[in-house]
Inverse folding.
């Protein structure tokens, strides 16, 4: 972080709002890390926020519950939301504006004019397109009109939350308003989507600061989601994963396994098919403050084909299984392989196909079988072996 006058100005502003330089650096380092940049990038981002001027953000609200804005603001440590708002220049945001009516509309025009081609347009909420979009109007204009007017003047466009990313809850069947996401309206334009219900504020902050600092956007997947946040499924990094591998599952809310923090797969957890970094990047500064962390199955809110379409308690198929963290025992009794035989078999199999193939067969042998490891072991008569305790006794 630089030591220039503007830098001091930003810091003194933070200090007067009760935040320290240390708080500031912590937040910006997390933001840099969240977009996959090295720690050194945090210094550049801080310097850009101090010297180049804070990135201008224009935030539009359409069909939504304002949950994404709430997740940004409702932190248990008030300094965090202040810090985030100190790092970006939120030039237009209907929920936070004191202005109303014509004054607010003028503010939007002024913010666009002052930062044309440079501002980051953040859209929260779906856009209804049925009947020319009459189901969502702000200041006499439809959401469709407003988006089509503002988007071409933006430097970057971010759809925050599942509603803006692909329609979310407003687009759930029967979708009477023809709600859809920003990328579906702005066909051909690059739209960074940050699905989530709500989206993690750090993913937004990291994206905006990268754009402001380097003039680039993060690498995106085929749905416009930044790979830094959506490349892996939740199941890969879930803190309950050891229980999944060991066959320990909650079967009902409140049963002994549920109270002991076991895997929620049988309760309909969508973590195995849901790409997001919820388990790696806690929402705001509260470790454990996410559905699986508080004992509710993941609902798959970042996946268009899952969220608000697949029944909440329906189990999902397991694809691309990764090797378990616990393995079946090697013992001479009970018909299992002897240690030398197991070693020999392992060597041959390893030479033939590699350990990854062996692990994947665990599931591919059961194509279409959505049962889970512990269940299959019980079905095969091997229930209760030392390394396979099955469900909690
Ligand atoms: Fe975690 Fe859900 Fe996977 Fe179980 S099924 S390990 S709760 S993501």
């Amino acid at each position: 972080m630089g030591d220039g006058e503007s830098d001091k100005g930003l810091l003194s502003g933070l200090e007067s709002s009760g935040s320290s330089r240390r708080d500031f650096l912590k937040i910006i380092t997390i933001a840099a890390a969240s977009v996959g940049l090295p720690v050194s990038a945090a210094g550049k981002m801080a310097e850009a926020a101090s010297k180049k001027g804070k990135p201008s953000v224009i935030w539009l609200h359409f069909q939504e519950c304002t949950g994404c804005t709430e997740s940004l603001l409702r932190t248990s440590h008030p300094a965090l939301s202040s810090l985030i708002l100190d790092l970006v220049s939120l030039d237009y945001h209907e929920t936070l504006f004191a202005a109303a009516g014509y004054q607010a509309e003028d503010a939007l025009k002024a913010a666009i004019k002052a930062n044309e081609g440079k501002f980051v347009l953040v859209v929260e909420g779906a856009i209804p397109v049925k009947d020319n979009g009459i189901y969502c109007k702000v200041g006499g204009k439809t959401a469709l009109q407003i988006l089509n007017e503002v988007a071409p003047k933006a430097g970057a466009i971010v759809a925050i939350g599942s509603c803006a990313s692909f329609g979310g809850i407003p687009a759930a069947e029967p979708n009477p308003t023809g709600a859809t996401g920003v990328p579906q309206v702005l066909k051909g334009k690059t739209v960074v989507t940050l699905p989530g219900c709500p989206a993690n504020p750090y993913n937004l902050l990291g994206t905006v600061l990268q754009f402001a600092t380097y003039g680039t956007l993060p690498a995106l997947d085929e749905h416009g989601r930044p790979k830094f946040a959506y490349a892996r499924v939740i199941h890969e990094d879930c803190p309950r994963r050891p229980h999944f591998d060991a066959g320990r599952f909650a079967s009902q809310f409140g049963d002994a396994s549920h109270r002991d923090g076991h895997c929620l797969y049988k309760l309909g957890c969508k973590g195995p098919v849901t790409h997001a970094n919820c388990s790696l990047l806690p929402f705001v500064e509260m470790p454990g403050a996410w559905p699986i962390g508080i004992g509710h199955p993941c609902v798959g809110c970042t996946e268009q084909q899952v969220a608000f379409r697949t029944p909440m308690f329906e189990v999902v198929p397991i694809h691309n299984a990764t090797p378990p963290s616990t393995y079946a025992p090697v013992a001479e009794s009970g018909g299992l392989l002897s240690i030398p035989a197991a070693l020999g078999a392992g060597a041959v199999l390893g030479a033939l196909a590699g350990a990854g193939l062996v692990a994947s067969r665990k599931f591919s042998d059961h194509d279409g079988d959505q049962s889970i490891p512990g269940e299959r072991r019980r079905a095969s008569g091997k229930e209760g072996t030392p390394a396979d305790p099955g469900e909690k006794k």
In short: The pocket of iron/sulfur cluster is lined by residues 234-235, 238, 240-241, 244, 263-265, 269, 271-272, 292, 298 (CB under 6 Å). Confidence is low (pLDDT under 50) at residues 1-9, 331-393. The longest helix spans residues 21-34.
